[in-house]
Write a structure and sequence with these properties.
Elements: H1 3-13, H2 37-51, H3 57-69, H4 76-90
Length: 91
């Protein structure tokens, strides 16, 4: 394709002609964002959960004490059920 032909096509479609934009009066207006009450509650709950520990120290201490004293026992039936449930999830 010759360059002259491209220039003629460009002139035909006015692709190289700069366009002027009109300034509007609403340009001075600012956007306003408000967060719903549910959104605010969600943010508060999320902050509270992020501050909470993943490990429940009271439960861990109780199990440790029962193991140390020899009173912690696990039912073999319960153990087998949980083991089969986990196996079923994987397979």
């Amino acid at each position: 394709m010759r360059i002259e032909t491209y220039n003629q096509v460009a002139q035909l479609y006015n692709t190289t002609k700069p366009t002027k934009t009109k300034s509007t009066q609403s340009a001075a207006a600012k956007d306003n964002v408000t967060i719903s009450r549910a959104g605010q509650d969600y943010q508060i709950a999320k902050q509270a959960v992020s501050k909470a520990s993943d490990i429940r120290e009271d439960k861990v201490a109780d199990v440790k004490n029962r193991i140390d004293s020899g009173t912690y026992s696990v039912s073999s039936d319960d153990f087998a059920k949980k083991l089969l449930e986990k196996y079923a999830e994987l397979g």
